Amino acid sequence: MEQYLVKLREVTAQYGLKVLAAIAILVIGWIAAKAIRGLVRRMLNKGRVDAALVSFVCSVTYVALMAFVIIAALGQLGIQTASFIAVLGAAGLAVGLALQGSLANFASGVLMIIFKPFKVGDYVEGGGVAGSVEGMTIFTTELKSPDNRKIIVPNSKMMGDTIVNYTAKDMRRIDIVAGVSYKDDLDKVRKVLRDILAADERVLKDPAPTVAVLELGQSSVNFAVRPWVKTQDYWDVFFATQEKIKKQFDAQGICIPFPQQDVHLYQAR
Questions:
Q1: pLDDT tier for residue 119 given thresholds of 50, 70 and 90
Q2: Which one of 3, 77, 157, 238 has the fewest beta carbons within 10 angstroms of its own beta carbon?
Q3: Cβ–Cβ under 8 Å, residues 170 and 231
C-alpha cells in the first residue's frame, strides 16, 4: 500500500501542475472565446450586418478559438499535437475540396448579405431567371416568377451574373413605340399622344414624358412614347397606355399600319 502511495505522489508531482495548467488554459480560454464572440457580435450588429451572417460568423469564431484553446491545453499535458493539427488540416482540405461548390455559394451569400444588391420583395433578373425575391439564405436565393413558380438559384450563379433590380428605384420609364402611317399629320399624332399621357394621373410631370419621332420605318413613322411613373404603377400604365393609343388613333382617324412582315402574312392568308 505504501508503495502505491509513493507512486501516486510521484505522478502527482510530475503531472499535477501540468493538469492544473491545462485546466486553467481551458477555463481562461473558454472565457476569452465567449468574450471575443460577444465583441464580434456587437461589432457586426453595430455595422447592421444581416442577423444570419452575424450568427454564423460568431459561431465560426467561437469554434475556431476553442479549437486553439483545446490544442494548447493538450500541448500543456505533454501530448504531441503536431500530428493532430496535421490531421485536422488534411481533413479540412478534403472537406473544402468536396464542398467547393457549397463554399462558393456561401461566399457569394456573404457578399450579397453585406452589399445588398436586392432585398426581399424586389423584382430582379439574374442567374438567367427573373422574379420577386422571397428569401435569401447563405447558399441560395429564392425567387417567385410572375406565373407563381418558385425558383431557387445558387448564390454563386446569382452573383456571377449581371443583376438587374427593377424595383430598386422609386421611378421607372415606360418605353412604348407607336407607329403611324406616312400619310398622317405628325403634329396631330404628337398632340394625341401627349393628351393621352396628360390625362393619366399616374404619369409623372417631372421628369416630363417624351413624345418624339423615333425612326422612319419601312412601313410606318414610329413615335417614342416614354412617360415616367412610380415603380409600382409601371405595368398598369404600360398596358393602359397602349390600349388608349389604339382607341384614340381609331377615334382620330390615325392609321396604324401593319408591320411589313405582318402584311405578307396577312396577304398569304
A1: confident
A2: 3
A3: yes
The Cα-based distances of 253 to 183, 186, 209, 223, 245 in angstroms read 11, 13, 24, 17, 12
Q: For residue range 125-160, list pLDDT tens digits in order.
A: 998 899 999 888 778 889 999 999 999 999 888 888
> How much is the pLDDT for 263?
35
The pair phi, psi for residue 21, each rounded to 5°, is -65, -40
Outline which parts of the chain fall under CATH 3.30.70.100.
171-267
C-alpha cell at 88: 485536422
Q: Decide: 65 and 32 in contact? Cβ < 8 Å.
A: yes
The one-letter amino acid code at 255 reads C
171-267: what fold?
A: Alpha-Beta Plaits (3.30.70)
Max distance between CA atoms of the chain, in angstroms, equals 123
H or E, element range at 148: none
For position 138, what pLDDT does the model report? 74
